[in-house]
Amino acid sequence: MPYVLGIDIGNTNTAAAVARRHGTTWTRPEAVPLHAGSALVPSVLHLSEDGSLHVGEPVTDDGSRTTRDFVRRIGDDVPLLLGGEACAPQTLTAELATWVVERVHAFEGGPAEAIVLSHPAGWRPYRRELLHRALFDLGLRTVTLLPRTVTVAESHAARGFSGTTAAVYALGGNSFEAALVRRTPRGTYESFGVPQGLDPIGGTDFDEALAGHVRTVLARELAATARRGTQAALRGLLAECDRVKRELTVDLAADVVLALPTGPARVPVTRAQFEAMIRPTVQATVDLLLRTVHGAGLAPAQLDGVLLAGGSARIPLVTELISAALPVPVEVEPDAQLTAATGAAMAACQVVSPRPRRPEPVRETAPTSGAGRATIPAMRRPHHDTIVPGDPPPRPPVRILPLELPKASRLALARSRGREG
User: Fold this and answer.
1) What is the pTM of this model?
2) Where is the composition biased (Pro residues) (predicted)?
3) Is residue 247 part of a domain?
């Protein structure tokens, strides 16, 4: 069945969703299982000794062959090292995107009719162009890039949000974005105002706060059992705290459980205790959201709602503090960590089947080139502010040297041998 693909590559996790064509309409986007039956795969790349490229956390690693947090580095002229190789962060991001596309291709039995990839709302054209060219070099030549806050709004609209103007609150694993969106004449959304962000602040900070509490409670026991098994248990502490964090979004209490050499250790935590630990951080994100609204010259009452995304956005304290600062409806989806990906799939439907738009006054266009196509408008999708490969934008004052992988690159070998999950 024909389908379109939406991809969200976050700093910590990657998600993908597809919408399938059903006659003249599209089905509601569905998440694609990317890793061990999960809709999320860690945004991590590992280069093995034989040159094959793996996606996700490695079982064992010396640290030099694994890279993460590369999306935020796009636009930085300092390369990342992977297995001793200098790699541009946009190349690594494109590798991960290509892995997702190939995996979905195998799952669906054919290529997508359109692909939309989300990116941080604060990106300027230069960074988008870097990623577009990296995608183009790997064979992904028709990918539309959209701000993550726009894809979040598209997902909420598909679930019934009908507002014209909204604030988007996107709380990732280690990043936070706040932006404003408004509905266009076609019924899609676009950004306006100046997006704001806090980096690195996100759900991992909440995990760390809870882990610090657990270490304090178990300090005496941990000091008395300085064994290898204790260190192994502590390495899994953050993952256990992430589990408890999610459990506390629906329950009033939960236990952090560690398997110590002396036996299981349980540290009970109430939602009130957890929220006290993270309140300053959450308040900082809400304050930035409010400044974003005021910075655009809007009063809170002019918003039709606040749209949430990110797994930690389901923490009740988030909605509580946002509602206190902005007295408008606050919307959060059941699978908030998938919101950006499902919204990207919705936007991909519109790339293939754009909605009709109301007539608008004729505007002055840019000089034409080629077969009479306007140079600047031709680089825009029919309904979103998106740049596709073309002439590179003006570079920033800092001199950026082109980064190319060696011809004998092991990353190139990884592509020829096939990516592995």
Assistant:
1) 0.82
2) 390-399
3) yes
